[in-house]
Every structure is written in structure tokens, then in C-alpha cells.
Amino acid sequence: MHAMRTSRWGAVFSMLLVLCFLLVASGCRPEVVATDLERVKQDGVLTVGNDTTYAPFEFMDAANKPTGFDVDLIAAVAEKLGLKSSIVTTAWDGIIPALQTRKFEVLISSMTITSDREKEVAFSIPYYRADMGIVFDKALQSITQPSDLAGLRVGAQVGTTGEESARLIEGVTDVRSYPDIQLAMADLKLGRIDAVVNDFPVCAYYVKDSPALAVISTVKIGDLDLTQYYGIAIHKDDTGVKSAIDNALRQLVSDGTYDTIYTKWFGATPEFRPGDSRP
After folding, report:
1. I want to staple 53 with a disulfide (CB 3.0 to 4.6 A). Which of 5, 138, 180, 263 is the partner?
2. Are 53 and 104 found together in one domain?
3. Does residue 95 share a domain with residue 171?
């Protein structure tokens, strides 16, 4: 009887040893955690947040597909990473929270690098430099400098540096904020506002197809420098992704791709390229 009990417990013990071995072999080993860059590369697609209402940087073409300078640039960046880009159209006022909650992997949308935004996201090296612009109906207004906006109705896109700049102009007390710049320009043409303050390249794009409008560029309001530097926004935790995107931007400059994309959309040679120093 004693020998039978010993044999039975011995068999049970042996089975437990075998089970432990199988668990160790299959599931008890620590999993290898992928880096943030490896995670992004897993499906072969770089998902990109973009507010497609900001021509010529991002807008919908006749076939209702995203197009523009930013769209072409991020596609070229993705290609350098061995990926394809996929645009996720997102409203401007929620675009940073959407990146933070990983609705997409990076964000390119003519976003100016500012100290406040750098508290929320990481930025690539700057990929574009722009002055501030003021658009107006030349038959109704004569504007040569920001101070000429005093007392006028001024439109701007909500949450942008254009809106911030408009509010800093002495004598401007009526700033009207719009969810996108297209709506602001439409109200300007209808006479509901007197001027629009926005990044100069976008202002110039709208003016070229509207003979009644004029645009001026400015780099200062008083002592405040209004020069804008755009960056690709990245989740703060994704340091590997940021490093890879910075390297990709530099490669696009070195192989001439950046200049080709720039010339396609702006018809000129860039005065600023990714990797150039800022004053």
C-alpha cells in the first residue's frame, strides 16, 4: 500500500515537472518589447493626421483625395522608412489630442513649432519656414502693415499662430475665429470681415485665384518676430520615430527630393530646407 502511494505521487510530481517545462518553453519567457519605430513599421503603413483644409499644403483634390505639399512630403518621408503613408483627415481643433491618443502615428499639417505645443508633442526638425500674411479686398482697404488693421474686423483660424498674431495687433478688438481657413476666406469675399491673418503661403494661394484680393507679408508685430517654422508632430514617447523622421528629412534634402516637391507646389527654389539653422 505504501509503495503504491509513493508511485502515484511520483507520477503526479513527474507530470507537474513536465507542465512547468512546457510553460517555461512556451509562455513564461519574457516577451521582447518592440521599439516605437518597430511598432510603427509592423504593418508597413505610416498613419498621418492632417487637416485637409489648408491649401497648398493640404487639401482635397477633384477626386476627393488628400493632396498638397505636406501630403507629398510625408509620403516621401514614409518611403525613406520603407513605409506607405495613409492620411487620416482630422479637424484642426482636435488634431493634437488625436495624436496623443494614437488615432494616428504622426501629424503633418502646417503646424508651427511653438513652446506651448512642445509641451504636448515632440517635433521633427523644421521642414518649412513661413512669414505671416494679411489678406484683404484691395477695393475696400489699403493695408501696408499690421497696424492698418486697427478698428477692422479680422478673421483667423482658431488655435493657430495667425489667430494669436491678430490678437496682438494694437487696436484690433474684433477677431473672428473660424474652424478652418477656407471659411474665413469665404467670409472675406462676402464682406463679412475686412481682412484675414494667416501664414503667408496659404494667403498667397487664395489670392492668386481671386483678383479682388491682395496680400502682404510681415515678419513682425512691434518687436514680436512672426516667422513660422513648421514641424512634423510625433508622440512624445516615440523617440525612435522622431529620430528616423529627422534622418529621412535630411536624406530628402541630400538627394534633391525636397527641392522637387517644393518647386512643384511653390514654383521656386526653397530659401529654407530641413536641417538649416534658425536665426
Report:
1. 180
2. yes
3. no
* Beta strand segments in 66-158, E: 66-67, 84-89, 106-107, 122-123, 128-130, 132-137, 153-157
Measured between its terminal Cα atoms, the distance across the chain in Å is 92
Strand, helix or coil at 46?
A: strand
| pLDDT the model gives residue 223 | 81
Residue 5 has a pLDDT of 44
Half-sphere exposure of 155 (CA within 13 A, CB side): 23
Q: What pLDDT, in 10s, does the model give residues 221-273? A: 878 888 999 999 999 999 999 999 999 999 999 999 999 999 999 988 999 99
Structural domain for 137, as ranges: 132-226
Same domain? For 114 and 192 the reply is: no
Number of domains, the chain: 2
DSSP, collapsed to helix, strand or coil, labels residue 101 as: coil
Q: Are the beta carbons of 50 and 108 closer than 8 angstroms?
A: yes
Give CA–CA dist 177/198, Å, rounded: 11
Is 104 in contact with 76 (CB distance < 8 Å)?
no
Identify the helix (H) or strand (E) that includes residue 37: helix 36-41
Going by pLDDT thresholds of 50, 70 and 90, the confidence category of residue 9 is very low
pLDDT tens-digit series, residues 10-28: 554 455 555 555 545 555 4
The CA distance from 124 to 48, in Å, is 14
Residue spans of alpha helices (H) in the chain: 2-26, 36-41, 69-80, 95-100, 115-118, 161-168, 181-189, 200-208, 239-254, 257-266
* CATH at residue 101: 3.40.190.10
For residue 262, the model assigns a pLDDT of 96
Domain-embedded: residue 141: yes
> Given the DSSP bridges, would you call strands 106-107 and 224-225 parallel, antiparallel or unpaired?
unpaired
